[in-house]
Design a protein that fits this description.
alpha/beta, 10 helices
């Protein structure tokens, strides 16, 4: 019985193998905590996320144009300002804040004024006043005419109606309007505005808005990167010899963390909101990297062995008890092995 019990207690419970790799595809998500968690478990990380788009560098162009204007190099200043304007229209303002964006149009107005283009200069002054209605020029630095032109543009812009602007299809995205952060709904002056949108898993998107109606709606058309299919992830994992691996894939507002076997079948999964951050995602990854406890067949469980031992003990003890309690029968019993005689 003791030997039988020891065998039962020593029955091995094989754990599932540890993962060999963590494959990540999560553009726009903080992936550093995931890397730290994987390395702490001795697991390598394969990051297949597309690289972020390079940030537009328009601010240096505006600064260079201002330097050229101050040096009276009007042709150089205008050429740089034209290049900066094209970048602003293409990116929705790029890296310019409200002040720098207003400067772009004010210096365009100054160059046009120097060239005798009063009509074109007025349009530039108006754009600057829409972007920064409170902006003024220092009379000690700028000519009286320039100061007066901007003041007239500010007064004209202030008399314009305001428009209810709604930005749709922008859930989870960062919105920048005229160089300042904005909500999906805003009240804006009629005129030109510049919108820049950054969405998780999508390339930055921007445009110039010509707002002229009582209400305006703009739908974000950011091009989102397509997440890889399961077959692609399996190929990547097998390429590094992984027999079991964890995938971290961002789709929309959710991050899907899955443990997958070498046969391509899912073993377990977690889902985390992108907004929860990299630390929460890393915790889910760490949970799936731990070996899962194997399922033990019922006949190898401790209670089954205990029941078997109890049954075997009863089968021996009951006949012996009957013999011992049988009145006139002998109170001893002899057990003879095979081939023996009493």
């Amino acid at each position: 019985m003791a030997a039988l019990a020891s065998v039962a207690s020593a029955a091995p419970a094989h754990a599932a193998p540890s993962v060999d790799a963590v494959v990540v595809w999560a553009p726009g998500v903080d992936r550093a905590p995931v890397v730290v968690a994987a390395r702490a478990a001795g697991v390598g990380v394969i990051d297949r996320s597309p690289p972020p788009a390079p940030a537009p560098a328009i601010a240096p162009l505006v600064a260079r144009a201002i330097e050229a204007y101050d040096a009276l190099a009007l042709d150089d200043a205008w050429a740089t300002l034209e290049r900066a304007r094209a970048e602003v229209d293409a990116t929705g303002g790029g890296d310019l804040g409200p002040t720098a964006l207003a400067d772009l149009f004010m210096y365009r107005a100054l160059v046009r004024t120097q060239r005798g283009d009063a009509s074109g200069a007025w349009d530039e002054w108006s754009s600057a006043a829409v972007i920064a209605p409170e902006r003024t020029l220092d009379p000690a630095r700028f000519a009286p005419r320039a100061v007066a032109d901007l003041e007239r543009a500010r007064a004209a812009v202030a008399a314009r109606a305001r428009v209810a602007l709604e930005i749709t299809d922008a859930v989870g995205c960062q919105l920048v309007l005229d160089g300042a952060a904005t909500a999906a709904t805003a009240s804006v002056l009629m005129g030109n505005h510049w919108l820049r949108v950054s969405c998780p898993g999508a390339e930055p998107w921007g445009m110039r808005l010509a707002v002229s109606a009582a209400t305006a709606t703009v739908s974000v058309a950011a091009r989102r990167s397509l997440a890889p299919a399961d077959d692609e992830l399996l190929v990547v994992a097998r390429g590094v010899g992984a027999h079991e691996f964890v995938t971290v894939v961002a789709r929309g507002d959710l991050v899907w963390i899955r443990r997958i076997g070498g046969d391509g079948r899912e073993r377990d999964r977690r889902t985390v909101a992108v907004g929860d951050g990299g630390a929460v995602i890393a915790d889910a990854v760490a949970a799936l990297m731990r070996p899962a406890a194997a399922r033990v067949p019922w006949y190898r469980t401790r209670w089954a062995w205990a029941a078997g031992i109890a049954g075997a003990t009863a089968a021996i003890a009951i006949p012996l008890t009957l013999i011992i309690a049988g009145g006139d029968a002998p109170t001893t019993a002899t057990v003879v092995g095979p081939g023996g005689r009493l």
